[in-house]
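Listing S7. Sequence submitted for prediction.
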Amino acid sequence: MPSRIPRTLPRLLALAALLGASPLALAAPGKTPSFDIARVANDIKILSSDEYEGRGPATRAETKTITYIAEAFKAAGLKPAGDKGSFFQDVPLLRSDIVGTPSLSMAIGGTATPLTQGDQIAVRAASTGQTAVKLDQAPLVFVGYGVKAPERNWDDFKGIDLKGKIMVVLVNDPDFEGGEGDFGGKLMTYYGRWTYKYEEAARQGAAGVLVIHESEPASYGWATVKNSNTNTMFDIVRSDPTKAHTAMEGWIQKDLATRLFQASGTDFDAAKAAARKADFRPMPLKATMTASYQVKPEIITSHNVAGVLPGSGHPEETVIYSAHWDHLGIGAPDAKGDTIYNGALDNASGTAALLELARAYGKGKKPDRSVLFLAVTAEEKGLLGSEYYAANPLRPLATTVGAINMDGPFAAEKTRDFSISGAAKLDLLTMLTEEAGKVGRHYTPDARPEAGSFYRSDHFPFAKRGVPAISYDAGQELVNGGAARGKQLADVYTRDRYHQPADEYDASWNTDSWQGDLALLYRLGDRLANGRTWPNWSADSEFRAAREATAAQRK
């Protein structure tokens, strides 16, 4: 499923000039260069063109994309930081495709109900390595939010045996509706993420899992669910994939779920209300599911692209800038028949920002610490490129000062604020807030912490291993129209373009925020690269212990 929604990117047609931008000016440490906005726009235009076919991993478009990035890194003066002296890090992945059209149906209260892939239901190609999925009248069981959290005295399963059964779960976590409770209120915990629910289904021994889609708690519409689940699936290569995945994983529309509950003698709202309480007990539904489809699994190799500017004083210490280069590739046609998911904003824009920052550092005075520029693969498939890097780092994580990620880093127009993806307390945010204050911008917390954005960008694999890491967000409080208009533009983008073929380059984008956004990103990295501080997480952060465990390796 998707990455964080780039809610602050250009959404609507607002006139902007891409001509006349200044070439990159040299900058000494502590000074901010001027960035070539026309060049940034051109990088986005090229990377999101139809010729790049949506930048799907392990396609011919990947070769074209990573070559473009590596050549830009080389031209910027970076040194190869990948495998065997190259700019590339091999990322082995399990790629799975459904062969043909899956046969899907339910018996709801005794009534046979055929289901169409992409309409009422969206099932994924199995990530277990098996070549076929066959379910014959598997019973459906509603297990609330599908959460087992001993530290919160919460167990939605109550010892039920789910072997041979399909687990039906709500999206998000139990606090979403009421805004308070055992799960941090509106702030989504990891228990609310669909990835957790899939993992828990595997731990429970279920035959499959179906997440009930609702746009508000999911933070995206059905089009996003369909487009993200009915194409090629990827996962890291696991020794036993059944420990992380069930054979069938998918989503269903709320209307279908409503029918399931009605046939079982209750209604959707009542079932959801019951699931918000710790005493909830699993509810067998008067419905079964039958499914049959072939799956083609194969191990492929995708690539991260890594270039480093070695430090002049402490080259063994590393500051990371990252962005994912991939998008959804070629998929189901939209209403206009367009099958290329160009991913201009998500995330050709972040990749373009990464390249421009590399040029800025490459042309400036060498920093004291090394700066690694990392373009990662398969973010759209579950942060797989960044997860692989964090598990197999090219440079030690213990001496990685911090990671600054860019996933849709530009605002629709010039803003008065900035934000980060999700909610976290760490020194990097304090430092970024200080740098923003110098240019009259302020920090605004993530407007939708319930969307779980912290877990949906490539900083997260670093964070969970203790590395201070953030994903930059350019803010939503527009100079022209304030936060209300910023939200309006964000909502339009989410509805009409996010994870759809319509996410295309548009020469009429307003680029007024881009210079300032790149400057903030540069200033934070420059401060880290030319300082001697080791930023950390707040004392009450769940990530601090992992950082402290490696403290002896830092000088």
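Caption to Listing S7: primary sequence and predicted structure tokens for the chain studied. The chain has two domains: 37-87+317-553, 95-297. DSSP finds 14 helices and 20 strands in the chain.
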